[in-house]
């Protein structure tokens, strides 16, 4: 596909609480754009507070897509996401607007912008349950070791704590005639239909990001996170949605095993760890153009820097 035939896409990535939503809205206002969310948990209805779903006020009239359209008991994966996101991007472009992908789920963003194609692969619920049980009894490190024996390359790329992806990789290796990493290489054979400018948000002083995370967690509690999490917990089939940070950490409180204060501290800790993992993932992508947020004294200069980066990319 020739460069001029490709769709121009702006992407805003980075760790949780780094200000992606605000920047995405600003860029949409500046370039006549619409936002396509790339967050694996904001897709669910009723999960507004813990997932930091943008509010009506924060959207400022900018159309946002792929937010709050699934029930929490619905399983969803990267293949489903890319199919829907490709469709939304085409529709936005056909309207003469600029698609702006905003989110922190690295796998979703890289799979979308690199045009990864997911071939049908077998599933086995019993095998998944067996692997889940193995991880619960022996730990995620032991589960990861099983993947390392089956597919060393995949094991290097998937963090041991990412239990869902480790289980999926093992499942693919055991049920197909190819390894998970072999299928991944084949999936990138078709060139991307996009000209992308990817802006990454980061902090030189990591403690500032962690302070924002802690503050935002407190605000979530004030907004009703505990009640929201309780409703999710009462559901009998929370499936993928139940993995969201802010829900699973409160379960010991609901079961009267831990205090609310200790569970809130656990949310803060797990969110900080998640932010660190996000940065590690995105740092592997050499196409990302990074902006250090704490090097700017005001938002005007920060936004102007983003405009200059996009202008220099020559995608618009």
Sum this structure up briefly:
With 316 residues, this protein is an alpha/beta fold.
CATH fold name of the largest domain: Rossmann fold
Secondary structure category = alpha/beta
Find the count of extended strands (DSSP E, 2+ residues): 6
Strand order of the largest sheet: 3-2-4-1-5-6
- How many separate structural domains? 2
What letter string, H or E per element, gives the SSE order? EHEHEHEHHHHHHEHHHHEH
Could you tell me the mean pLDDT? 93
How many H/I helical runs? 14
Radius of gyration from the CA trace?
Answer: 20 Å
CATH class of the largest domain: Alpha Beta
Largest sheet: 6 strands, parallel
Estimate percent helicity: 40-55%
Structure, explained:
This protein has helices at 20-31, 56-59, 78-94, 106-113, 125-138, 140-150, 152-157, 163-175, 180-186, 206-223, 225-234, 251-254, 260-283, 299-313, and strands at residues 7-13, 33-37, 64-65, 98-102, 194-202, 288-292. With 316 residues, the chain is of the alpha/beta class. The chain folds into two domains: 3-118 and 188-313, Rossmann fold (3-Layer(aba) Sandwich), CATH 3.40.50; 125-186, Histone, subunit A, CATH 1.10.20. Helix 3 packs across helix 4 (106-113), helix 5 (125-138) packs across helix 6 and helix 6 (140-150) packs parallel to helix 8. The mean pLDDT is 93.
Describe the protein's topology.
Elements: E1 7-13, H1 20-31, E2 33-37, H2 56-59, E3 64-65, H3 78-94, E4 98-102, H4 106-113, H5 125-138, H6 140-150, H7 152-157, H8 163-175, H9 180-186, E5 194-202, H10 206-223, H11 225-234, H12 251-254, H13 260-283, E6 288-292, H14 299-313
Parallel strand pairs: 1-4, 1-5, 2-3, 2-4, 5-6
């Amino acid at each position: 596909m020739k460069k001029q035939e490709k769709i121009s896409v702006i992407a805003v990535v980075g760790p949780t609480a780094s200000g992606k939503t605000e920047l995405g809205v600003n860029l949409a206002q500046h370039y006549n754009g619409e936002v396509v969310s790339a967050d694996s948990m904001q897709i669910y209805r009723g999960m507004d507070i813990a997932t930091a779903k943008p509010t009506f006020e924060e959207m400022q009239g900018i159309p946002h897509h792929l937010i709050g359209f699934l029930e929490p008991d619905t399983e969803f994966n990267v293949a489903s996401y890319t199919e829907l996101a490709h469709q939304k991007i085409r529709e936005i472009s056909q309207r003469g607007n600029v698609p702006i992908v905003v989110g922190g789920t690295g796998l979703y963003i890289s799979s979308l912008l690199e045009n990864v194609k997911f071939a049908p692969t077998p599933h086995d619920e019993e095998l998944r349950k067996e692997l889940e049980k193995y991880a619960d009894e022996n730990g995620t490190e032991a589960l990861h070791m099983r993947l390392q024996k089956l597919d060393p390359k995949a094991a290097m790329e998937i963090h041991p704590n990412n239990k869902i992806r480790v289980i999926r990789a093992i499942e693919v290796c055991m049920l197909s005639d190819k390894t998970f990493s072999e299928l991944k290489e084949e999936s990138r054979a078709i060139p991307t239909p996009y000209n992308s400018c990817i802006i990454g948000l980061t902090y030189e002083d990591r403690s500032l990001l962690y302070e924002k995370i802690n503050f935002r967690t407190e605000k979530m509690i004030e907004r009703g996170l505990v009640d929201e999490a309780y409703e999710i917990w009462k559901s009998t089939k929370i499936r993928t949605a139940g993995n969201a940070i802010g829900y699973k950490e409160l379960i010991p409180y609901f079961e009267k095993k831990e205090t609310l204060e200790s569970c809130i501290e656990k949310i803060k800790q797990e969110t900080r760890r998640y932010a660190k993992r996000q940065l590690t993932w995105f740092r592997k992508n050499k196409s990302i153009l990074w902006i250090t947020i704490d090097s700017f004294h005001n938002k005007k200069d920060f936004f102007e820097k983003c405009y200059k980066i996009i202008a220099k990319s020559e995608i618009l």
